[in-house]
Amino acid sequence: MEKLIYDLRNFKIEYNVMNGVPVKDLLQEPICQQFLQQQMKNWHAPHIVVAASMFAKRYAQMVVSSTLFSLVHYQIVLCLTVDKVVYGDDHTLQIPLDDIHVLQINDEMREKQYEKLFRQLFAEQIKPLFEVLQKVTKIKSSVLWENVAVRINSVYQKLLAQDLTDRQKKQIYQDFFYLNNANGAIFGLKENPISHYIKIGQELENNPCRETCCLFHKLEKKKEALTYCQVCPLPKK
Description:
- This protein is α+β, with helices and mostly antiparallel strands and 237 residues long.
- It has one domain.
- Helix content is 49%, strand content 7%.
- The protein has seven helices and six strands.
- The protein has helices spanning 2-7, 29-43, 48-73, 110-137, 141-160, 166-181, 202-206; strands at 13-15, 21-22, 76-78, 86-87, 93-95, 102-104.
- α2 crosses α4.
- The longest helix has 28 residues, at 110-137.
- InterPro entries: IucA/IucC-like_C.
- It comes from Gracilibacillus salitolerans.
- This is Aerobactin siderophore biosynthesis IucA/IucC-like C-terminal domain-containing protein.
């Protein structure tokens, strides 16, 4: 457990420090709008739509990528519910470690555990947050959900490049298959919003580019030495 907690810092997760905005508060439109206006300044974004997309990408990395990583390496996950987490002023996800439920995956119960875990993650957390982002900024739902998909693609690509056991490699593909074939109810929607965008292995290598644009190139000042995101679908100038 200690090793997992340490490793999750790579996903910008911090523990027992609360100096930002409770994510549950972002489900209120006025608070979300005020928050995104501040993020425009932080990210040097020219428009609130750009700030919404950058926030969605960061949030997906912290809650979705970290969960998938934990499943492969530890078979243990921290259940990061919307009422427990805080989005920090330093763009970290802050969680009260003593107040977070820990789920130990059991092979015999995996299907039921996965349904509960991913419904909690997507239908009860990501979807409500994205709905508010859409209402406040008019950003397209497809952009937000592909932001989630590219984080999934990335974490699995990085995991497969590691020195994994056969069991871990098999787990990656099984988990990918689960997400790709999950019904819409897991996401709180009629249809699976990520199945069109997630890729793995050779398919991802052959066609790494996004279909929608995340608007990263619109940022006026970037910390990374990049003009476009690494999977940008736009023609490069």
